[in-house]
Amino acid sequence: MNSFRYLAPRSVDEALGLLAERGMDAKVVAGGTGLINMMKQHLVNPEALIGLGALPGLDGLARVDGTLRLGALTTHQAVATSPLVAEAAPLLADAFARTATPRIRNVATVGGCLVHGDPNQDAPVALLALNAEVTLASRGGRRTLPLATFLRDYYETAIQPDELLLEVNAALPPPNAGSSYFKFLPRSADDYATVSAAAVLVVEEGTIRDARIAIGSCAPTALRCPEAERLLLGQPPSAELLRAAAETTRAIANPLSDGRGSAEYKRAMVPVFVRRALEQALARAVAQH
Amino acid sequence: MELIKQRITLTVNGQKHELEVPTSRTLIDCIRYDLGLTGSVEGCGVGVCGACTMLLNGNMVSSCILLAVMADGADIQTIEGLAKDGQLDPVQQAFMDYGGFQCGICTSGQIMAARSLLDHTPRPTPDQVKEWMMGNLCRCTGYYKIMESILQAAQAEAAQ
Question: What is the 8-class DSSP label of residue A251?
Fold first, then answer.
């Protein structure tokens, strides 16, 4: 690892001041489970690290009207074990609980996960299916953008060098919704997914009123699946319909070959796991009646 | 390039240390080489194997992917701090009594993770033990004995 200055701001304002001055050659670190590994491999060589460990008030989970607010410094373990999340957005609890190991979840944060921009992560898939938005701050002000816009490419997001991610807001599904997160893990329980899929379905009077589908580990970023969603909307749910909708996701999958499967294999597995996620979400939606 | 250093305070096994460390020093290297506590070991160096598991403010962490400067002001527990007044911790005793280790490389990490489990969940089910311990690898594959040791330690603590 190269040598660097370590700066530990005590407030968001102080952090934003440091980012305004030296954001171009500094990196922000929270839990460090992504960044420190990249620095050890000399993939990232910042001249300064801005550590958020001493920054109060940026963690925590809160329900605000129909939204779940996740502070940037909330750990994966806090989300995975929160009774509030389990009740209001069970697929989010599943996605965070299935990330890495309890030891990593103790330090890896919500904000760090999103800014890292690794397409193999779990949380972005579930958050996309919840229409999540991220709030970024700089000394010039704040802006909010959809997570789907924030995620840009492999390890690349819309965050600017002078910006800090403050919070994520996920739209909570209505109480009669059914949701599901599927993670295909052929090797070990703590691995990244070969492919992953999240689904949220609302069924009223025998008709699908809302459908949100997202997939992970199969493109440069986690993706929403608009064509599959369109096919489902307004239709009576059936096994054939779910299968047809899932099949459309094969076309948007653009995976890389790696130790978790060849690109061809992952492309074939995407519709399979989307279908399973839809079937489970439907069963749960029906059980709500 | 000049090595940038910083002053930090760590409380390790109840003892306060003030030291000056390079900002790039990992916590495991600081504990081993600056403080001389070599019970914790570095295995994979990327947060996967669990050999370097220690407790930071009561929660288990991978000390190989945490910088010492990030732990400034923290309360840290390592394997050296478990025995009290010459008495092994019940988890240590159970690992000895039930053969919870073979070559020993992963053992301090296994024991710290198990200690953390029993601190959070005093009477874990076998499934809870598996879930909690999944990030602590034993290349001798002595998992059955490790499981048994942890379940026995939980029983011994409950009986106290």
Answer: G
Which of A3, A53, A104 faces B1 most closely, judged by CB atoms? A3
Q: Which domains does chain A have, with CATH numbers?
A: 5-51 (3.30.43.10), 61-171 (3.30.465.10), 181-287 (3.30.390.50)
Q: What is the pLDDT of residues B84-133, one digit of tens each?
A: 999 999 999 999 999 998 999 999 999 999 999 999 999 999 999 999 99
Cβ–Cβ below 8 Å for B72 and A8: yes
Q: How far apart are CA A195 and CA A269, in angstroms?
A: 7
Residues of chain B neighbouring A190 (CB-CB closer than 8 A): 48, 134-135
CA distance A108 to chain B (A): 10
Q: pLDDT (tens digit, 9 = 90+) per residue, A79-95?
A: 999 999 999 999 999 99
> What is the mean pLDDT of the segment spanning A245-266?
97
Q: Collect all residues of chain B within an 8 Å Cβ-Cβ radius of residue A80.
A: none
> B102 in helix, strand or coil?
coil
Q: What is the least distance, in Å, from the CA of B94 to any CA of chain A?
A: 22
- ipTM value: 0.95
User: How far is the CA of B57 from the CAs of B11, B78, B84, in angstroms?
Assistant: 10, 11, 19
> In chain B, which residue's Cα lies nearest the Cα of A55?
B70
Supply the pTM of this predicted model: 0.96
- Close Cβ partners of A93 (under 8 Å, ≥ 6 residues apart): A79, A80, A82, A85, A86
Q: In a 3-state reduction of DSSP, which class is residue A68?
A: strand
Does B72 sit within 8 Å of A190, measured CB to CB?
no
Calculate the average pLDDT of chain A: 96
Spatial separation of the C-alpha atoms in residues B98 and B52, rounded to whole Å = 22
Chain B residue numbers with beta carbons less than 8 Å from the beta carbon of A1 are 24
* Partners of residue A4 in chain B, C-beta under 8 Å: 4, 23-24
Task: Count Cβ atoms below 10 Å from residue A11 Cβ, excluding itself.
Answer: 12
pLDDT (mean) for A70-80: 98
C-beta atoms of A32 and B67 within 8 A: yes
